Amino acid sequence: MMLNVWKWYQRCLTVHPLKTQIISSGFLWGIGDIAAQAITQSTVNVKKDISDGSQELKINWRRVAITSMFGFGFVGPVGHFWYKGLDRFIKMRLKLQPKSARFVAAKVGLDGFIFGPLDLLVFFSYMGFSNGKNLDQVKEAVKRDFIPAFVLGGGIWPIVQVANFRFVPVRYQLLYVNVFCLLDSAFLSWLEQQQDAPWKQWFTSILTLEGQKGREV
């Protein structure tokens, strides 16, 4: 069964690469948001000491649709052209040998410091506006969520991308990323739902202290 699905995906990717990656990105980000809502509700239930299973899982399908549209509208199309363009740029402009250590390191570095922050910025801004927040509220949400997501993701994504850029053909790199985005979208959706959690404030306080020390010097 899985082999047939994979063969079907390969055919779709060959005939309609952009459409296929857009659709798969949208579905995976939607599934990730469902997982995030389940995790969030489970956490709340644990805090309330609800152990008899009486709390029914309630999925906010509007939120799932909104998150899916982020996959359809941003991750799919932008990711498609990003990975193709990144590969072409490293080969033609930087003249690095494909799959070499420098080639992989250059890709990981550019992906982590260009596409990664852009992805987070667009995600948190989009989720804020989609949920009816005004510009000032969105700015506060981005300020609150961006650094924790960037720091925590920065410890995982470079490892994921080293394997991606070293072993995965360019045409499958977005699919590879989207599989991990199933986890990433769950994490980002969960993080966005945490609002002003104490652990987020810890990141903010650390940055504030560093900024004050910098001004004093």
Account of the 3D structure:
There is one protein chain. With 217 residues, this protein is mainly α. The protein is built from eight helices and no strands. It has helices at residues 2-15, 17-47, 61-92, 101-130, 135-154, 157-167, 170-193, 198-216.
Protein topology:
Elements: H1 2-15, H2 17-47, H3 61-92, H4 101-130, H5 135-154, H6 157-167, H7 170-193, H8 198-216
Helix pairs in contact: 1-2, 2-3, 2-7, 3-4, 3-7, 4-5, 4-6, 5-7, 5-8, 6-7
What structural keywords apply?
217 residues, mainly alpha, single chain
Main β-sheet: number of strands, strand sense, barrel status?
Answer: none
Strand content: under 5%
Please count the helical segments. Answer: 8
Unreliable stretches (pLDDT < 50, length at least 5) are none
Find the structural class using helix and strand composition.
Answer: mainly alpha
Find the count of extended strands (DSSP E, 2+ residues): 0
The best one-word shape is globular
Quick take:
The chain is an all-alpha fold. It has 8 helices and no strands.
